[in-house]
Input
Amino acid sequence: MTTQTGPDRTAPARAPAQAELRRWLPSYLILAAIWGTSFLFIKVGVRELHPLWLTFGRVAAGVLTLLVVLAVTRDRLPREWRLWGHLAVVGLLGVSLPFTLFGFGEQRVSSVLAGIWNAATPLVALPLTVLVFRTERLTVRRTAGIAIGFAGVLVVLGVWRGVGGAQLTGQLMCFGAAMCYAVAIPYQKKFIAGRTGSGVSMAAAQLLVALVQLAVAAPLLAGPPPDPTGLSAQVLLSVLALGALGTGIAFVLNFHVIRVAGASTSTSVTYLMPLVATLVGLLILHEDLRWNQPAGALVVLAGVAVSQGLLLRRRAATRPTR
Output
Protein backbone atom coordinates (compact mmCIF):
# COMPACT_ATOMS: atom_id res chain seq x y z
CA MET A 1 0.00 0.00 0.00
CA THR A 2 1.32 3.45 -0.87
CA THR A 3 0.70 6.74 0.88
CA GLN A 4 -0.40 9.57 -1.35
CA THR A 5 1.33 12.80 -0.32
CA GLY A 6 -0.14 15.13 -2.91
CA PRO A 7 -3.04 15.57 -5.29
CA ASP A 8 -3.81 12.63 -7.56
CA ARG A 9 -2.71 13.99 -10.90
CA THR A 10 -3.55 10.76 -12.69
CA ALA A 11 -7.25 10.84 -11.80
CA PRO A 12 -8.32 13.47 -14.38
CA ALA A 13 -6.48 11.56 -17.10
CA ARG A 14 -7.91 8.23 -16.07
CA ALA A 15 -11.51 9.35 -15.70
CA PRO A 16 -12.19 9.96 -19.42
CA ALA A 17 -10.61 6.62 -20.35
CA GLN A 18 -12.69 4.77 -17.77
CA ALA A 19 -15.85 6.54 -18.88
CA GLU A 20 -15.09 5.69 -22.51
CA LEU A 21 -14.54 2.04 -21.56
CA ARG A 22 -17.91 1.90 -19.82
CA ARG A 23 -19.59 3.18 -22.98
CA TRP A 24 -18.61 0.17 -25.11
CA LEU A 25 -17.41 -2.68 -22.87
CA PRO A 26 -20.86 -4.04 -21.82
CA SER A 27 -22.02 -4.18 -25.45
CA TYR A 28 -18.69 -5.77 -26.39
CA LEU A 29 -19.05 -8.58 -23.84
CA ILE A 30 -22.69 -9.25 -24.74
CA LEU A 31 -21.66 -9.48 -28.40
CA ALA A 32 -19.02 -12.08 -27.56
CA ALA A 33 -21.62 -14.17 -25.71
CA ILE A 34 -24.29 -13.92 -28.43
CA TRP A 35 -22.00 -14.50 -31.40
CA GLY A 36 -20.01 -17.20 -29.62
CA THR A 37 -23.23 -19.14 -28.99
CA SER A 38 -24.34 -18.64 -32.61
CA PHE A 39 -21.99 -21.39 -33.79
CA LEU A 40 -23.98 -23.90 -31.73
CA PHE A 41 -27.24 -22.78 -33.34
CA ILE A 42 -25.68 -22.96 -36.83
CA LYS A 43 -24.53 -26.51 -36.11
CA VAL A 44 -28.06 -27.49 -35.13
CA GLY A 45 -29.65 -25.64 -38.04
CA VAL A 46 -27.59 -27.22 -40.83
CA ARG A 47 -28.69 -30.67 -39.70
CA GLU A 48 -31.98 -30.11 -41.53
CA LEU A 49 -31.55 -26.90 -43.56
CA HIS A 50 -29.41 -25.97 -46.53
CA PRO A 51 -26.92 -23.29 -45.38
CA LEU A 52 -28.48 -20.71 -47.71
CA TRP A 53 -31.97 -21.29 -46.35
CA LEU A 54 -30.62 -21.24 -42.80
CA THR A 55 -29.06 -17.84 -43.53
CA PHE A 56 -32.30 -16.64 -45.14
CA GLY A 57 -34.31 -17.72 -42.09
CA ARG A 58 -32.03 -16.07 -39.56
CA VAL A 59 -31.84 -12.83 -41.56
CA ALA A 60 -35.63 -12.76 -41.95
CA ALA A 61 -36.04 -13.22 -38.19
CA GLY A 62 -33.48 -10.48 -37.59
CA VAL A 63 -35.28 -8.09 -39.93
CA LEU A 64 -38.59 -8.68 -38.17
CA THR A 65 -36.97 -8.10 -34.79
CA LEU A 66 -35.45 -4.78 -35.80
CA LEU A 67 -38.56 -3.57 -37.61
CA VAL A 68 -40.52 -4.10 -34.39
CA VAL A 69 -37.87 -2.10 -32.50
CA LEU A 70 -38.09 0.67 -35.12
CA ALA A 71 -41.87 0.77 -34.80
CA VAL A 72 -41.79 0.89 -30.99
CA THR A 73 -39.14 3.63 -30.89
CA ARG A 74 -40.73 5.50 -33.84
CA ASP A 75 -37.44 5.41 -35.66
CA ARG A 76 -37.16 5.24 -39.45
CA LEU A 77 -35.01 3.60 -42.08
CA PRO A 78 -32.32 5.64 -43.87
CA ARG A 79 -33.53 7.70 -46.84
CA GLU A 80 -30.26 8.48 -48.57
CA TRP A 81 -29.87 6.31 -51.70
CA ARG A 82 -26.07 6.47 -51.67
CA LEU A 83 -26.10 5.13 -48.12
CA TRP A 84 -28.29 2.23 -49.24
CA GLY A 85 -25.61 1.41 -51.84
CA HIS A 86 -22.98 1.15 -49.11
CA LEU A 87 -25.38 -0.92 -47.01
CA ALA A 88 -25.77 -3.34 -49.93
CA VAL A 89 -22.00 -3.91 -49.93
CA VAL A 90 -21.93 -4.49 -46.17
CA GLY A 91 -25.02 -6.68 -46.43
CA LEU A 92 -23.21 -8.93 -48.88
CA LEU A 93 -19.81 -9.03 -47.15
CA GLY A 94 -21.02 -8.81 -43.57
CA VAL A 95 -24.18 -10.92 -43.71
CA SER A 96 -25.05 -12.99 -46.78
CA LEU A 97 -21.64 -14.45 -47.62
CA PRO A 98 -20.15 -15.10 -44.16
CA PHE A 99 -23.35 -16.50 -42.65
CA THR A 100 -23.66 -18.93 -45.54
CA LEU A 101 -19.98 -19.88 -45.52
CA PHE A 102 -20.10 -20.70 -41.82
CA GLY A 103 -23.15 -22.87 -42.50
CA PHE A 104 -21.30 -24.81 -45.18
CA GLY A 105 -18.23 -25.00 -42.95
CA GLU A 106 -20.14 -26.43 -39.98
CA GLN A 107 -21.44 -29.24 -42.16
CA ARG A 108 -17.81 -30.42 -42.12
CA VAL A 109 -16.22 -29.18 -38.87
CA SER A 110 -17.27 -28.75 -35.25
CA SER A 111 -18.87 -25.58 -33.90
CA VAL A 112 -15.81 -25.16 -31.66
CA LEU A 113 -13.46 -25.11 -34.64
CA ALA A 114 -15.72 -22.72 -36.56
CA GLY A 115 -15.75 -20.32 -33.62
CA ILE A 116 -11.97 -20.44 -33.39
CA TRP A 117 -11.52 -19.69 -37.08
CA ASN A 118 -13.65 -16.60 -36.64
CA ALA A 119 -10.85 -15.18 -34.48
CA ALA A 120 -8.79 -14.71 -37.64
CA THR A 121 -10.90 -11.65 -38.52
CA PRO A 122 -8.71 -8.99 -36.81
CA LEU A 123 -5.59 -10.34 -38.52
CA VAL A 124 -6.85 -8.84 -41.78
CA ALA A 125 -9.26 -6.16 -40.53
CA LEU A 126 -6.70 -4.00 -38.71
CA PRO A 127 -4.23 -3.76 -41.63
CA LEU A 128 -7.17 -2.92 -43.90
CA THR A 129 -8.32 -0.10 -41.62
CA VAL A 130 -4.80 1.33 -41.77
CA LEU A 131 -3.68 0.72 -45.36
CA VAL A 132 -6.93 0.75 -47.37
CA PHE A 133 -9.65 2.58 -45.46
CA ARG A 134 -7.31 4.81 -43.39
CA THR A 135 -9.67 5.03 -40.43
CA GLU A 136 -7.21 3.99 -37.71
CA ARG A 137 -3.50 3.86 -36.98
CA LEU A 138 -1.38 0.75 -36.64
CA THR A 139 0.60 1.00 -33.42
CA VAL A 140 3.22 -1.27 -31.94
CA ARG A 141 0.81 -2.21 -29.16
CA ARG A 142 -1.97 -3.21 -31.56
CA THR A 143 0.44 -5.19 -33.71
CA ALA A 144 1.76 -7.02 -30.67
CA GLY A 145 -1.75 -7.76 -29.44
CA ILE A 146 -2.79 -9.21 -32.79
CA ALA A 147 0.35 -11.33 -32.92
CA ILE A 148 -0.29 -12.70 -29.43
CA GLY A 149 -3.95 -13.35 -30.23
CA PHE A 150 -3.04 -15.15 -33.44
CA ALA A 151 -0.53 -17.29 -31.53
CA GLY A 152 -3.33 -18.20 -29.12
CA VAL A 153 -5.57 -19.23 -32.02
CA LEU A 154 -2.80 -21.50 -33.32
CA VAL A 155 -2.45 -23.09 -29.89
CA VAL A 156 -6.20 -23.67 -29.68
CA LEU A 157 -6.13 -25.25 -33.15
CA GLY A 158 -3.24 -27.51 -32.19
CA VAL A 159 -1.42 -26.83 -35.46
CA TRP A 160 1.36 -29.28 -34.55
CA ARG A 161 -1.21 -32.05 -35.04
CA GLY A 162 -2.27 -30.82 -38.50
CA VAL A 163 -5.96 -30.03 -39.01
CA GLY A 164 -7.10 -32.36 -36.23
CA GLY A 165 -9.05 -34.69 -38.53
CA ALA A 166 -11.54 -32.05 -39.71
CA GLN A 167 -11.99 -31.61 -43.42
CA LEU A 168 -9.80 -28.90 -44.88
CA THR A 169 -12.60 -27.56 -47.08
CA GLY A 170 -14.76 -26.84 -44.02
CA GLN A 171 -11.95 -24.93 -42.35
CA LEU A 172 -11.28 -22.92 -45.51
CA MET A 173 -14.96 -21.98 -45.70
CA CYS A 174 -14.89 -20.76 -42.09
CA PHE A 175 -11.70 -18.83 -42.81
CA GLY A 176 -13.34 -17.28 -45.88
CA ALA A 177 -16.28 -16.16 -43.73
CA ALA A 178 -13.88 -14.51 -41.29
CA MET A 179 -12.19 -12.69 -44.17
CA CYS A 180 -15.56 -11.35 -45.33
CA TYR A 181 -16.04 -9.84 -41.88
CA ALA A 182 -12.52 -8.42 -42.00
CA VAL A 183 -13.42 -6.40 -45.10
CA ALA A 184 -16.99 -5.49 -44.07
CA ILE A 185 -16.14 -4.01 -40.67
CA PRO A 186 -13.63 -1.32 -41.77
CA TYR A 187 -15.80 -0.59 -44.84
CA GLN A 188 -18.71 -0.01 -42.48
CA LYS A 189 -16.57 2.20 -40.26
CA LYS A 190 -15.49 4.40 -43.18
CA PHE A 191 -18.69 4.73 -45.19
CA ILE A 192 -21.58 4.07 -42.79
CA ALA A 193 -20.74 4.52 -39.09
CA GLY A 194 -20.33 8.29 -39.38
CA ARG A 195 -23.72 8.88 -41.03
CA THR A 196 -26.67 10.28 -39.16
CA GLY A 197 -29.17 7.69 -38.01
CA SER A 198 -29.51 5.25 -35.15
CA GLY A 199 -27.76 1.91 -34.91
CA VAL A 200 -31.13 0.16 -35.11
CA SER A 201 -31.98 1.96 -38.35
CA MET A 202 -28.62 1.14 -39.95
CA ALA A 203 -28.71 -2.50 -38.83
CA ALA A 204 -32.28 -2.97 -40.07
CA ALA A 205 -31.43 -1.49 -43.46
CA GLN A 206 -28.32 -3.66 -43.76
CA LEU A 207 -30.34 -6.79 -43.02
CA LEU A 208 -33.10 -5.77 -45.44
CA VAL A 209 -30.70 -5.57 -48.39
CA ALA A 210 -29.12 -8.87 -47.32
CA LEU A 211 -32.58 -10.46 -47.21
CA VAL A 212 -33.24 -9.32 -50.79
CA GLN A 213 -29.88 -10.79 -51.87
CA LEU A 214 -30.68 -14.10 -50.21
CA ALA A 215 -34.23 -14.19 -51.60
CA VAL A 216 -32.67 -14.20 -55.07
CA ALA A 217 -29.71 -16.50 -54.37
CA ALA A 218 -31.33 -19.19 -52.19
CA PRO A 219 -33.93 -20.51 -54.69
CA LEU A 220 -31.38 -20.46 -57.51
CA LEU A 221 -28.61 -22.25 -55.60
CA ALA A 222 -30.45 -24.29 -52.96
CA GLY A 223 -33.77 -25.16 -54.59
CA PRO A 224 -37.26 -24.46 -53.26
CA PRO A 225 -37.68 -23.31 -49.64
CA PRO A 226 -38.17 -26.00 -46.98
CA ASP A 227 -41.52 -26.71 -45.38
CA PRO A 228 -41.36 -25.21 -41.85
CA THR A 229 -43.79 -27.85 -40.57
CA GLY A 230 -41.28 -30.53 -41.47
CA LEU A 231 -38.53 -29.05 -39.31
CA SER A 232 -37.83 -30.09 -35.73
CA ALA A 233 -38.45 -27.76 -32.82
CA GLN A 234 -34.69 -27.56 -32.14
CA VAL A 235 -33.98 -26.28 -35.65
CA LEU A 236 -36.84 -23.77 -35.59
CA LEU A 237 -35.71 -22.40 -32.22
CA SER A 238 -32.12 -22.23 -33.47
CA VAL A 239 -33.19 -20.15 -36.49
CA LEU A 240 -35.18 -17.80 -34.24
CA ALA A 241 -32.26 -17.44 -31.81
CA LEU A 242 -29.84 -16.75 -34.66
CA GLY A 243 -32.20 -14.15 -36.08
CA ALA A 244 -33.53 -12.30 -33.05
CA LEU A 245 -30.29 -12.31 -31.06
CA GLY A 246 -27.33 -13.02 -33.33
CA THR A 247 -28.63 -11.14 -36.38
CA GLY A 248 -30.96 -8.57 -34.82
CA ILE A 249 -29.97 -7.27 -31.40
CA ALA A 250 -26.28 -8.09 -31.86
CA PHE A 251 -26.06 -5.95 -35.00
CA VAL A 252 -27.26 -2.92 -33.04
CA LEU A 253 -24.66 -3.59 -30.35
CA ASN A 254 -21.95 -3.97 -33.00
CA PHE A 255 -22.80 -0.61 -34.58
CA HIS A 256 -22.48 0.97 -31.14
CA VAL A 257 -19.06 -0.58 -30.50
CA ILE A 258 -17.75 0.49 -33.93
CA ARG A 259 -18.94 4.07 -33.43
CA VAL A 260 -17.58 4.44 -29.89
CA ALA A 261 -14.44 2.30 -29.84
CA GLY A 262 -13.46 1.84 -33.49
CA ALA A 263 -13.30 -0.99 -36.02
CA SER A 264 -10.26 -2.74 -34.54
CA THR A 265 -11.94 -2.95 -31.12
CA SER A 266 -15.09 -4.31 -32.74
CA THR A 267 -13.18 -7.02 -34.60
CA SER A 268 -11.29 -8.02 -31.45
CA VAL A 269 -14.56 -9.42 -30.07
CA THR A 270 -13.72 -12.41 -32.25
CA TYR A 271 -10.92 -13.20 -29.79
CA LEU A 272 -13.49 -13.87 -27.06
CA MET A 273 -15.99 -15.71 -29.21
CA PRO A 274 -13.89 -18.93 -29.39
CA LEU A 275 -14.06 -19.17 -25.60
CA VAL A 276 -17.86 -19.07 -25.68
CA ALA A 277 -18.04 -21.39 -28.69
CA THR A 278 -15.76 -23.89 -26.96
CA LEU A 279 -17.79 -23.90 -23.76
CA VAL A 280 -21.18 -24.37 -25.42
CA GLY A 281 -19.80 -26.91 -27.89
CA LEU A 282 -18.38 -28.93 -25.02
CA LEU A 283 -21.29 -28.66 -22.60
CA ILE A 284 -24.25 -28.82 -24.99
CA LEU A 285 -23.07 -30.59 -28.17
CA HIS A 286 -20.52 -32.74 -26.30
CA GLU A 287 -17.80 -31.96 -28.82
CA ASP A 288 -14.20 -32.85 -28.09
CA LEU A 289 -12.02 -30.58 -25.96
CA ARG A 290 -8.26 -30.96 -25.82
CA TRP A 291 -5.82 -29.40 -23.37
CA ASN A 292 -4.50 -26.94 -25.94
CA GLN A 293 -7.90 -25.24 -26.39
CA PRO A 294 -8.19 -23.70 -22.89
CA ALA A 295 -4.44 -23.03 -22.88
CA GLY A 296 -4.71 -21.19 -26.18
CA ALA A 297 -7.76 -19.32 -24.89
CA LEU A 298 -5.63 -17.77 -22.14
CA VAL A 299 -3.13 -16.61 -24.76
CA VAL A 300 -5.98 -15.15 -26.79
CA LEU A 301 -7.20 -13.18 -23.77
CA ALA A 302 -3.68 -11.85 -23.28
CA GLY A 303 -3.71 -10.66 -26.89
CA VAL A 304 -7.01 -8.84 -26.31
CA ALA A 305 -5.62 -7.14 -23.21
CA VAL A 306 -2.50 -5.98 -25.06
CA SER A 307 -4.28 -4.81 -28.22
CA GLN A 308 -6.82 -2.77 -26.22
CA GLY A 309 -4.23 -1.34 -23.82
CA LEU A 310 -5.97 -2.81 -20.78
CA LEU A 311 -2.70 -3.83 -19.15
CA LEU A 312 -1.28 -0.34 -19.58
CA ARG A 313 -4.39 1.24 -18.07
CA ARG A 314 -4.27 -1.08 -15.06
CA ARG A 315 -0.58 -0.38 -14.56
CA ALA A 316 -1.19 3.37 -14.74
CA ALA A 317 -4.07 3.09 -12.29
CA THR A 318 -1.95 1.27 -9.69
CA ARG A 319 1.24 3.32 -10.17
CA PRO A 320 1.98 5.42 -7.06
CA THR A 321 2.27 9.18 -7.48
CA ARG A 322 5.08 11.24 -6.09
In short: The two ends are 14 Å apart (CA to CA). The chain has one domain: 37-221+230-311. Residues 1-16 have pLDDT under 50 and may be disordered.
